Amino acid sequence: MINTNNVLHGFTDLKNLDSLGPIVLNQAKGIYVYDQDGKKYLDANSGLWNSVVGFDHPRMIETAKKQYEKFSGYHAFFGRISEPAVQLADKLIEISPFTSGKVFYTNSGSEANDTTVKLLWFINRRKGKPNRRKIITRINSYHGVTAVSASMTGKPYNSEFGLPLDGFLHAACPHYWKYAEPNESEEEFTKRMGEDLENLIQKEGPETIAGFFAEPVMGAGGVIPPSQGYFDVVQKILKKYDIPFIADEVICGFGRTGNLWGSQTYNIQPDILIASKCITSGFFPLGAVILGEKMTEEMMEASYQAEEFFHGFTAGGHPVGCALALEAIDIIINEKMIENVRKLEPLFMGALKKFEELEFIGEARGIGLMGALEMVHDKKTKKPFDGSISIGERVANQCIQNGLICRPLGPSIVLCPPFITSEEEMSIIFSTLDKTLRKVFSEVKSLG
Ligand SMILES: Cc1ncc(COP(=O)(O)O)c(C=O)c1O
């Protein structure tokens, strides 16, 4: 047995961990991972949304080997750059919604969001608008964990760090099932979401807002697709006040919603696009800020004035990461992964929706290959379970016992299987989940 006492786990119930112990994973094949005792788990969460082409895709392994042999690592400061980093920037612009632009490399999604905020501050200061610094995101959104990206994240746990920082504002969450008022139609709800945003902008002063960041589908907030027409309404308001729209595509990017970008799925025309996760399918830490035409122009103007953009990460644009990203993108596009997401979507969503027949499933929701089941104590009133029941954790822990990895997110269970999942594997996911839910729900019922 490996001693893991020296590891400090993030996003983990540490008391629970003391009694349950960690799961040490050493191997993987396709969409399965294996622990140190050889127990096999189907990972219905693609690692953390990212391992979508399979944990052992031979082309990815070969690419890493070749790139390490050729040029094992270099930075992107002082105008230096490796060939794969140049090629990846070309590829990202080519597949982005922009006709031209620029790419800035980071090691993670958090750093990409953080970088973008600094970039907006930098541009505005050089444009003579130093007070245009406020950032709007939404309640329940997730944008990362650095001090800035955690300030953008709309989760209450960030108060543990005394966050958000000043000037980070959270508009209402467009989750119709949860936040609609009695008898409010979805159309009326969307309209109210727009009014909430516009009121916030007016209250703060439009001239003080630097940007609006949104995930096309909120991921770590519990897989929350926007209410009908939400982004049309939002984009109109942002245009009116000349506020840049930054699409945080860290989860949605590269096929998760059934299109290359979540922005395509929701007809979003972003000014900047944030990418990470699937960009290397989990084979390397890499994030990218992709600037559209207008932001590129403004950024270059500010940088010429200041002489440089005083920002960068030692390992940003790492040649191995960039070579792996080029390969992952090629696999996703040319091995028809997005087509597979679309083909599986009806099966996936149909099976999820069927769980709404169960007594404690309040809502089954999702799009593409991202979905969630939200559990409630009382379906009619949507009354949640008592926190002490830890319903999400219970289901996820029982899934683990049954060889299935899915993620608890508050009262919800999240599923985001890899893009290579077969129909047969999909039916294993849902039969295991069915067995698990029925067992946990009968236990919970006996608790009263
Ligand atoms: C939408 C979104 N943005 C940003 C991040 C942060 O990315 P990272 O964990 O790579 O810092 C995440 C992580 O899950 C995310 O889901």
Shape: globular
Mean pLDDT, as a whole number? 97
Q: Class of the largest domain, according to the CATH hierarchy?
A: Alpha Beta
Structural class: alpha/beta
The separation of the N and C termini measures 38 Å
Strand share of the residues? Answer: 15-25%
Low-confidence parts:
none
The CATH homology group name of the largest domain: Type I PLP-dependent aspartate aminotransferase-like (Major domain)
Helical percentage: 40-55%
User: Which CATH-level-2 architecture of the largest domain?
Assistant: 3-Layer(aba) Sandwich
- Write down how many β-strands occur, each being a DSSP E stretch of 2 or more residues: 15
Order of strands, widest sheet = 4-10-9-8-7-5-6
Radius of gyration: 22 Å
CATH topology of the largest domain: Aspartate Aminotransferase, domain 2
> What pattern of helices and strands is seen along the backbone?
HEEEHHHEHEHEHHEHEHEEHHHEEHEEEH
- What is bound: which ligands? pyridoxal-5'-phosphate
Characterise this structure.
There is one protein chain. The protein is an alpha/beta fold. It folds into 2 domains: about 150 residues, Alpha-Beta Complex (Aspartate Aminotransferase, domain 1), CATH 3.90.1150.10; about 270 residues, Type I PLP-dependent aspartate aminotransferase-like (Major domain) (Aspartate Aminotransferase, domain 2), CATH 3.40.640. The protein has 15 helices and 15 strands. The strands form 3 sheets. The protein has a 7-stranded mixed sheet, sandwiched between helices. It has a 4-stranded mixed sheet with strand order 1-2-3-13. Helix 10 links the parallel strand 8 and strand 9. Helix 4 packs parallel to helix 12, helix 5 packs across helix 11 and helix 8 packs parallel to helix 9. The longest helix is centred in the last third of the chain and has 25 residues. The model has no long low-confidence stretch (mean pLDDT about 95). The structure holds pyridoxal-5'-phosphate. The site of pyridoxal-5'-phosphate has 14 residues, from helix 5.
